[in-house]
Write a structure and sequence with these properties.
Layout: H1 3-19, H2 39-51, H3 57-70, H4 75-80, H5 84-89, E1 94-95, E2 98-99, H6 100-117, H7 120-125, H8 136-152, H9 160-165, H10 176-186, H11 210-218, H12 229-242, H13 251-259, H14 277-286
Antiparallel strand pairs: 1-2
Length: 287
């Protein structure tokens, strides 16, 4: 490993020790998963909190809180017995680009998952192969299965809202929110609950959004500004050099740099205390 790579790994490890703590989960949407004790409720809550994890943090918190309150004490039971009257309960729900009907469409699909496979994990495992380089083929199969079920019941049409909740890797989407859900389900440490035991965390893909992409450019791990599947794969490969068996290890800690430190990618006085300061300063000099 080169000196630069060694320096980056040391900075990432410092960030991990500093931020990868249970007490720092809030306001991350992962907080909602820990509101429940049963795996079935945690799994359903996880996928709902993850697919709505776009926009301002405050709005995400507000929307997920409202959705779960409408679903009662057990999200799993709400989904397992989902029907027209429960669809009506969600009718006027809205989170940015998605409506209550979009969420209801997803819940109808999850009800079918429970009917056929008993859990989201069991459906996901249908497309999982330990010999695959990463989780993308399994994620593609998962999304394709759900969307094909919907299309077959709607004259081969897939609504825009549902397609936004279940982006397909083959469309070159970075699938940030679904990869976030997979991180929660597969990894197990002080932050991630690791409910799924049959998937190798080495196969996970970094959930890349604008903030993560910016930090990775600062670290020199990726050059382009476009957030795409190609970007996510490249960034994951870069992190795998530092942590081959757990390339998504640093995701939560790096996301805290934006949420807690309010990082914008521009140098400020406060930046001098950040573990990434030396890399930011160097990049600005080069630019």
């Amino acid at each position: 490993m080169s000196k630069v790579s060694t320096d980056i790994k040391q900075a990432l490890e410092k960030l991990y020790r500093k931020y990868n703590r249970w007490k720092l989960i809030k306001p991350d949407p992962l907080q909602f998963v820990y509101q429940y004790a049963k795996k079935a409720d945690m799994e359903i809550t996880g996928i709902l909190a993850a697919v709505l994890a776009y926009g301002r943090v405050e709005q995400i918190e507000k929307s997920v809180t409202e959705l779960l309150s409408r679903m009662g004490n057990s999200p799993y039971e709400f989904v397992r017995t989902f029907n027209k009257s429960k669809r009506e309960k969600l009718k006027n729900f809205k989170h940015r680009f998605n409506t209550g009907d979009d969420i209801s469409d997803l819940l109808e699909l999850l009800r079918k998952v429970i009917d056929k496979f008993s859990s989201v994990e069991e459906l996901f495992l249908q497309g999982y192969n330990r010999n695959d380089k990463n989780i993308i083929p399994a994620l593609s199969t998962f999304c394709d299965t759900l969307l094909s079920w919907y299309a077959s019941a709607h004259k081969d049409r897939i609504s825009k809202g549902l397609a936004y909740l279940l982006p397909r890797p083959e469309k070159n989407s970075a699938c940030k929110r679904l990869n976030l859900f997979l991180r929660w389900m597969v990894r197990n440490d002080d932050v991630d609950p690791g409910l799924w035991k049959s998937i190798d965390k080495a196969k996970l893909i970094v959930p890349v959004d604008v903030h993560m992409g910016r930090l990775c450019r600062i670290l020199g791990l990726y050059n382009h500004k476009t957030v795409s599947l190609r970007a996510a794969l490249k960034i994951t490969d870069s992190f795998a050099e530092f942590s081959p068996t757990d390339p998504v290890k640093y995701d939560f800690a790096l996301s805290r740099v934006g949420i807690i430190e309010d990082c914008t990618g521009r140098l400020r006085t406060e930046c001098e205390n950040c573990e990434l300061f030396v890399f930011c300063r160097e990049k600005i000099r080069k630019d």
